[in-house]
Amino acid sequence: MSRSFLYAAARTPFGRFGGALAEVRPDDLSAIAVTGLLARTPALDPARISDLVWGNANGAGEENRNVGRMAVLLAGLPTSVPATTVNRLCGSSLDAAIIASRAVDTGDADIVVAGGAESMTRAPWVLPKPSRGYPAGHLAAVSTTLGWRLVNDRMPAEWTVSLGECNEQLREKYGISRDRQDEFALRSHRLAAAAWADGFYDPLTVAVPGTDLTRDESIRADTTPEKLAGLKPSFRADGTITAGNASPLNDGAAAVLIGSEAAAAAIGTAPLARIAGRAAYAVDPVLFGFAPVEAAEAALRRAGIGWSDVGAVELNEAFAVQSLACVDAWGVDPDLVNTSGGAIAIGHPLGASGARILGTLAHVLRERRERWGVAAICIGVGQALAVVLENVAG
After folding, report:
1. Which residue has the higher pLDDT, 137 or 116?
2. What is the pLDDT averaged over residues 116-139?
3. Residue 296: which residues within 8 A CB-CB, separation 6 or more?
4. Which contacts qualify for 212-215: CB closer than 8 Å, 24 or more apart?
5. Could you tell me which residues come within 8 angstroms of residue 373 by beta carbon, excluding any fewer than 6 positions away?
6. Among all residues, which ones are annotated catalytic?
7. pLDDT, position 134
8. How does DSSP assign 322-345, residue by residue?
9. 175 lies in some domain
10. Do 110 and 51 form a contact (C-beta atoms < 8 A)?
11. Is residue 345 part of a domain?
């Protein structure tokens, strides 16, 4: 039985691409999330932290030099606190939390900070490096913000289509209409706006110094079915995926504190949830949006429970169509999913989203007095991760 626990969570508000956080470096976002997390546990001596595991999907810009270690140094933690950075694309920070929990389970660590950050605004353009100096031809700068870049010619072309095209194919496979996608997106915005208005996110978020961003910048509380229906398809002329029913590009960071049961004395607070099950799963790259289905099933089996036991689900909304495909396949009550909004409204800064949904899930379970919850995330190039939490806070 897993004996690793989630003690606290904190994140920045998520900014829009080119928005309020555009001037903030990803290593600074990381340090702000770590500082905000430790402010939730003031009794904890930072020197007691065994490790910091940090997620980042880009790694090509200002976060290139092991951004986890940069977070330790910029946050003013003792230099004795080690750190590593992991990259599982969109799942990077959930992977970081899984790695942290395994370290605690095995006794290799007692207290670990996990999380991740992404500045999609500040992701650089890159040039392929020629094998010889001064090539005669042109070189094109490639954006590292999202998706494939500098693709290996040996990779099958059907695997390297855009993320949007992958989800148009998923929509065709499972017959999910534009109306359902837009309805799901509208729900996400309305629930996120209501959660902020009700104060749900206040204890989970930390301000970013030098900005006036107080809540997630991509939320559109005033959106309507008519506005969503009026948006043009983004990937196919006759497609159904639009800027309104897919997650936007974002900047932000999120962190969670994971420790053993015995670490409660050093941390100075009781844990919120036990990490009861973990799983990774992989499929053909084009079907990446559906991969959370089996990842969640495997995590539930390892936790020793089934869907009938689950009272809350946090599923990262990369696209409305893949979210609906997963919820349909699970057969779970849709009203249990993303009850405080999801990534279509909140945003999806790639390296931060996994820790964001995990921290949110722990607080949803506590608020709703549910025992079991699932956090799941799809990952580009055909992967997914899932974690089962058991509420131990009552």
Report:
1. 116
2. 89
3. 279, 326, 330, 374, 376, 386
4. 212/20, 213/12, 213/13, 213/15, 213/19, 213/20, 213/21, 214/13, 215/13
5. 273, 310, 311, 312, 313, 314, 361, 362, 364, 365, 388, 389, 391
6. 90, 348, 378
7. 79
8. HHHHHHHHHT--GGGB-TT--HHH
9. no
10. no
11. yes
pLDDT of res. 317: 98
Question: Three-state SS for 108?
Answer: coil
Structure tokens at 182: 């837009």
Quick one: pLDDT at residue 94?
98
Structural domain of 108:
4-123+248-389
Tell me if 191 is assigned to some domain.
no
Tally of domains within the chain: 1
- Which residues are CB-neighbours of 168 under 8 A, at least 6 positions away? 235, 236, 239, 240, 241, 321
Bridge partners (DSSP) listed for residue 275? 389
* CB neighbour class for 70 (10 Å; exposed up to 12, middle 13-18, buried from 19): buried
| Band (140; pLDDT cuts 50, 70, 90) | confident
Domain membership of residue 363 (yes or no) is yes
Residue 124 is given by DSSP the state P
Which of 99, 94, 121 has the alpha carbon at shortest distance from 112? Answer: 99
* Token couple for 7: 């003690």
pLDDT for 279 equals 98
Sign of CA dihedral 157, 326, 249, 76: negative
Give 269-278 pLDDT, tens digit per residue: 999 999 999 9
317-326: burial string, b at 16+ Cβ within 10 Å, e else: bbbbbbbbbb
Tokens standing for residue 194: 């209501």
Q: How far apart are CA 70 and CA 74, in angstroms?
A: 6
CA 120 – CA 123 distance, rounded (Å): 5
Q: Is 0.85 surpassed by the pTM of this model? A: yes
Look up the CATH number of the domain holding residue 366.
3.40.47.10
* pLDDT tens for each residue of 315-337: 999 999 999 999 999 999 999 99
d(CA 232, CA 242): 6
> Per-residue DSSP letters for 266-329?
HHTS--SEEEEEEEEEE--GGGGGGTHHHHHHHHHHHHT--GGGEEEEEE--SBHHHHHHHHHH
DSSP reduced 3-state for 26: helix
